[in-house]
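Person: Please comment on this record:
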Amino acid sequence: MKKIFVLCNQPFSRTGIEHTLADLSDFEVVGSCEFSDAALSMIAANCPDVVVMDLVGLSSPINVMGKVRKACENSHIVVFCQSGVLDFAVKALDAGAA
């Protein structure tokens, strides 16, 4: 079972992702919150297999990805963007997101 952490500043989207993943038997949501220092501590404590991260609402998404990577270097980061701004997605992919 893959451990998933959802990092999203939009409560409605975060809840939707949690419920969708909870319905799938291969995934366990081990944490979910908006970005904060507490979120990084939760990621470090749970060391999830995957961090699902929204790029919208972050002042520096690439910087946040680096902090997530430091919190648990073995976690894969999957990003999504609720905005039509392609630059965020390209930069995230360049920084190692999937």
User: Anything to note?
Assistant: DSSP finds four helices and four strands in the chain. The first strand starts at residue 2 and ends at 7.
